[in-house]
């Protein structure tokens, strides 16, 4: 019964373009737990501003800003995901430009 259900759910997922996340959740609960722990969460504005001033060398591209933030343990995976989802491609001259780009 479980095999039939899994095939039906995977078929629906493929038709909707959800194959890889759906397959991961159906095959391993560990993958689902990892997905759930990276839920986006807005970081504290003052902590983010402070970090951008102290740990990013400007001018910086989006990739350089994200790399500088990736290793910081002061932010959760969810906060990093929130930031990355909102930072558009570009070249940033100051931390103020980064904050403006993410709507802060």
Structural commentary:
With 104 residues, the protein is mainly alpha-helical. It folds into two domains: 2-37, no CATH class; 45-101, no CATH class. The protein has seven helices and two strands, in the order H-H-H-H-E-H-H-E-H. A two-stranded antiparallel ribbon has the order 1-2. The protein is globular and about 30 Å long. The termini are far apart.
Strand order of the largest sheet: 1-2
Low-confidence regions: 18-36
Radius of gyration: 18 Å
User: Could you report the average pLDDT, rounded to the nearest whole number?
Assistant: 77
Q: Total strand count, please?
A: 2
Q: Estimate what percentage of residues fall within beta strands.
A: under 5%
- By secondary-structure content and strand pairing, the structural class works out as mainly alpha
Instruction: Count up the domains.
Output: 2
Biggest sheet record: 2 strands, antiparallel
Gap between N and C termini, in Å?
51 Å
Topology record:
Elements: H1 2-16, H2 19-27, H3 29-37, H4 45-55, E1 60-61, H5 62-70, H6 77-86, E2 91-92, H7 95-101
Antiparallel strand pairs: 1-2
Helix pairs in contact: 1-2, 2-3
């Amino acid at each position: 019964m479980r095999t039939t259900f899994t095939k039906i759910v995977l078929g629906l997922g493929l038709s909707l373009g959800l194959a890889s996340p759906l397959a991961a959740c159906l095959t391993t609960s560990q993958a689902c737990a990892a997905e759930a722990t990276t839920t986006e969460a807005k970081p504290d504005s003052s902590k983010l501003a402070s970090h951008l001033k102290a740990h990013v060398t400007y001018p910086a591209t989006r990739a350089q800003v994200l790399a500088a933030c990736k290793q910081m343990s002061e932010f959760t995976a969810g906060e990093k995901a929130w930031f990355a989802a909102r930072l558009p491609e570009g070249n940033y001259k100051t931390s103020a430009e980064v904050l403006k780009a993410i709507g802060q």
